[in-house]
Design a protein that fits this description.
Length: 259
Amino acid sequence: MKFNNKNIYISEKAIIGKNVKIGDNTVIYDNVTIGDNSIICNDCVIGEPSNDYYFNKNYENPKTILEEGAFIRSHSILYAGSSFGKKFSTGHRVTIREHSKFGNNCRIGTVSDIQGYVEFGDNCWLHSNVHIGQQSKIGNYVFIYPYVVFTNDPTPPSDICIGPTIGDFSQIAVGTVLLPASEIGKHCLVGAQSLVGGKYEDYSLIIGNPAKKIKDVRELKSKNGKKSHYPWPYNFSRNMPWEHEGFENWKLNNGYEND
């Protein structure tokens, strides 16, 4: 049983919503808000203080907000000053550093490491073992597959920090490395194990080391060879908000007329 109410610490300054389950050996720090119907599994830390906590006697934990329906798997650590939209979820042993911002329905896979000061839109899915460097900006409906790394220092070591930017609906395939300040447009596909730098326009198929735009992604055919697989929302709808009405109708009703 995961919810035995054993060895749980919840700060008096935390706000816990209705029907929230908290697993054993979990710590909830000051100024954390957890929305209704959330599940925090065993051995988690929510609102982990930044380094200043250990050296500044006047430290005050910034607000950490988990909106309703969160599902945080065991041994995950969410740092203070971050905000997480509705139905945010993690796999096991996820670390998300301070001042990260996530939209609704985002999923972060097991053993992923988010280094803080990042921004995610809605419905982003990160698979296992993904590393996101500081100052990265990810749009809506972006999928990032295992062992992808976002870097941010163009001349290491330095005090410069410029993370990659990813446009809505783009896909970043397995083992890709994105270099500092790289910009990927909307509806792009980055092929597996690519080394990506520079700026790429919408609908680019990006492949290689160093990566190059090969063609317009809409030229890629499905396995049956009869039609293009991209833009992928027309061909994939599982657990997407357009699952029951189709992407064409959904986008017209949700401000995506040009996508």
